[in-house]
Specification:
With 307 residues, the protein is an alpha/beta fold. The chain contains 10 helices and 14 strands. Helix content is 36%, strand content 24%. The chain starts with a strand and ends with a helix. 48% of the residues are buried.
């Protein structure tokens, strides 16, 4: 089947309410916020937003509540060019909402309310599985575990590349299978340490490889990322240092989206890593995980300046 979309994602779609504060609260008090912003969020969802803004054809697969938050999430996807026709809205259910405090250092404190659609309805489940063969890449992060095993089998049968994002503080033993069976496995250092038992990033990357793996990587914030292609050597991509960081929300997610975008455009792993590091850095320049995502023209200008 000819791919219709560069990327299709299965994951959580949230509504993020971001509040910039001087410092995190330590007790009962009333404070004035420096800024407040509301936008869509979620690891896979933001990765697709990043890739779509760069020019990739992306479609999000998820179930939302049929409420104001769900409508806002859908509208935000459309702002970045993510196809929303496969989103399913469940009547009477609430969509997921996250409240994120961001201090002056760009550090975050996140409080979230799970949506009422964690256990996918049969209609949503069938719709998701039917869409997978239309993608070049299926991007997942462990959300909707009840469908992911079948989704990965469907992707394999259709020749669709599987990309797995193992986020920091998200490691669970049941996610080992996802990491081990993905074609592209790029995880945060915290996830890699728990998954591999290694402490050196280069060693972690090598330990992530299985018979399924084509590309493995470990991301470590300002320390950069380490990646390896099957048959190659581990490379280290330095992070792009910014003079001032406003918010680190969505940096890892946008790295994944930009990396996959670059691969679908025929870039090498090294080229894709450089492009992804640039997008992650640019994304720190505004409150929220998506507000500062660049288009391709803006990214190229940034890379020329950094050259």
């Amino acid at each position: 089947m000819t791919a219709v979309f560069d990327l299709i994602g299965i994951g959580a779609s949230t509504l993020d309410i971001l509040t910039a504060v001087e410092d995190f609260p330590t007790g009962r008090a009333v404070h004035e916020a420096r800024a407040v912003k509301m936008e869509g969020g979620g690891p896979v969802a933001t990765a697709l937003a990043a890739a779509a803004k760069l020019g990739a054809a992306c479609q999000m697969l998820d179930e939302l509540g049929d409420d104001a938050a769900g409508r806002a999430i859908c509208a935000d996807f459309q702002t970045y060019g993510v196809d929303t026709r496969a989103l399913h809205f469940l009547p009477g259910a609430a969509s997921a909402v996250a409240s994120i405090l961001v201090n002056q250092k760009g550090e975050r404190a996140v409080y979230f309310q799970r949506g009422g659609t964690e256990n996918l309805s049969p209609a949503a489940r069938n719709g998701i599985l039917s869409r997978i063969p239309y993608a070049s890449v299926l991007h997942i992060n462990g959300r909707h575990m009840g469908i992911l095993e079948e989704a990965m089998r469907t992707a394999c049968a259709a020749g669709v590349c599987i990309s797995f994002d193992g986020g920091a503080d998200r490691y669970r033993s049941e996610m080992r299978t996802l990491a081990e069976q993905a074609d592209i496995c790029i995880v945060a250092r915290d996830f890699a340490e728990k998954h591999t038992g290694c402490t050196d990033c280069a060693e972690m990357v090598r330990a992530l490889f299985t018979s399924h793996t084509k590309i493995a990587g470990v991301t470590d914030g300002v320390r950069g990322s380490w990646l390896m292609e099957r048959g190659g050597e581990v490379i280290h991509q330095r992070a792009c240092q910014m003079a001032h960081v406003i918010d680190t929300t969505g940096c890892g997610d946008s790295y994944h989206g930009a990396f996959l975008y670059a691969l679908t455009r025929g870039k090498t792993v090294s080229e894709a890593a450089r492009l992804a590091a640039a997008v992650a850095a640019m994304n720190t320049q505004a409150l929220g995980g998506r507000s500062a995502l660049p288009n391709r023209k803006e990214l190229d200008a940034f890379l020329r300046e950094r050259a």
